[in-house]
Amino acid sequence: MAGNKNTVFDGKLKSRCEKLEDICSRDIRHVARSVSDVERILTERIQALEAKLKETAKHLTTECTFLAEAVDQTNNRLTKIESAGDDPQNTPAVAVVTQRPHTPASEIDSEAESEEEFRNTVSIFDEIMEAQRSPRQEIVEIHAITDDPPRETFETLPEESKKSFEKACEALKAFFESPKIRNAARQSLSNCRKSSSESVAAFANRLRPLVLAAMIGQNEEAFQNRLLDEFLDRLSPRQLAREVKLSDPETFEQALFKAQQVENLEVSERGSEIHLVKPLDHSHQAINELTERVNQIETNFAQAKRGGGRFRRGGDSRSNNRRWNNQGQRNNYSDRFRNNSNGQYGNSNNNRRYNPGNYERTNDGRPICNHCGKIGHFEQTCFRRLPPSDNPSQWNHRHQVNSFDYQALWRSRPASNASRHTNFAKSALSRARES
């Protein structure tokens, strides 16, 4: 009797070992295929990056050639201008046009036969500029030289304010110098800050109209002092503002010139701020990191295999083959419930312990029972593992027990090592493509 028990135990142990070895082999082959796919994708990505680098180099060569030609043409024109010197014969003709579109242009010809003719031309030009214009012409000129939003405001003025130049100017001044507009301008000025990616010149161009709007009605000296103070207070970074303040500028132009000098010096110390190959270098860095991760995955699986570690299995097409190979066994499931002489059931699987790690699934994620081989439930909920009964109500109760929410069990399943590593490789590749 003891010998028979040992034989049964050895057979079970051997089957369990073979099953465990089969599980490990399939997981390792699955990981090897995943690593091979990642390696193939990395190779394709590297080849695409190399082609992009060649294309970028070719484009840069074309741009540099075009730029060199433009510089040569400019130098040739400058050389011609310098060689002309002060010779009046080489001075080009200049046409001066007044602000009024209906006034013809007065040409000043340097090739005049005498200085007297040139003086006559200048005299005619002065007379045209000093000519008296009608009120209607002045109103038309206001509308012509203004841009939005003053143009829109001028169009909304009443007709009484549009009859004369003075009334139109007073109406526009009253609108743009109102306390409401001034408070809005001051609020915009308080929120104005130099961003880290903004140049000093761009910040100055953005700050000047805000200060001018906030200082409506003040004299020019007060405006210049306020502009200088606001420029120094809103400069960033701190090192740039400190260098400009240490120079103690007296005017806004001096502060702007000093800030541009410091900015250019910082750019020259750091190197060129515009690096055309920087995005490609970033992509290479991401690929190198991904390669290191993949190598680490291979190392971890090798160590786990040597240490007898166990991996959870994911869905595999071989699970379907195993399921269909057990068709004959499933057709004879009624014989498993026949009692033997010891009062036990003929199926030895009833005596084996349930292993929560045996979660086989199909390719679409549906659970597979390791006991009966059917799809739709796991071994722990298989009704065929329970002893038969002559009471039909108990069978119905067993079916109700086994009809639980498989979708909830699928959503709460633990992710396999292979799927986690594959998802990590895919996310790393997507980050490399985005960069």
UniProtKB/TrEMBL annotation:
This is CCHC-type domain-containing protein. Residues 303-360, 414-435 are annotated as: Disordered. GO terms for molecular function: nucleic acid binding; zinc ion binding. Keywords: Metal-binding, Zinc, Zinc-finger. Residues 369-382 form the CCHC-type domain. Residues 414-425 have a biased composition (Polar residues). InterPro entries: Znf_CCHC. It comes from Steinernema hermaphroditum.
